[in-house]
Amino acid sequence: MTDPIFDKSEQLKQVQQGILPGETIIAVYDCIGAGTGFLAITNLRVVIQDKSFVGKRTAITSIPYKNIRSVSFLSNKSWAGQFFSSSSIAVDVADTTYEADFRGMDKAHHVHTVILQHIT
After folding, report:
1. From first to last of its 120 residues, what are the pLDDT tens digits of the chain?
2. Locate the Bacterial Pleckstrin homology domain: which residues (predicted)?
3. DSSP per residue over 27-39, as a string?
């Protein structure tokens, strides 16, 4: 078993507190921009910290891979032939789409790849 990849140790610790028996953390990436604090991927689910609730409340949302309909790269401009040229992804779950903006394309690519492997 390999150690999880993470940006901030306090975010990793938060995710570790909610791990189920047999579950392993793959990565915990800090997110930038409004709303999302971090996105974690495990062998069972995606975990998103959402800071956009009224009254400075924060939600930790768990999304089992079986509930994810699609995962997308987001871009503000033409990719000019580069498929993995975005540092943002969107995860579509029924009537909700979660967006996450990362520091770097490599993190978005890693999350996209892991989710895609679990949903296809």
Report:
1. 689 999 999 999 999 999 999 999 999 999 987 677 899 999 999 999 987 666 677 888 999 999 999 999 887 665 555 555 568 999 999 889 999 999 888 999 999 999 999 999
2. 10-117
3. EEEEEESSSEEEE
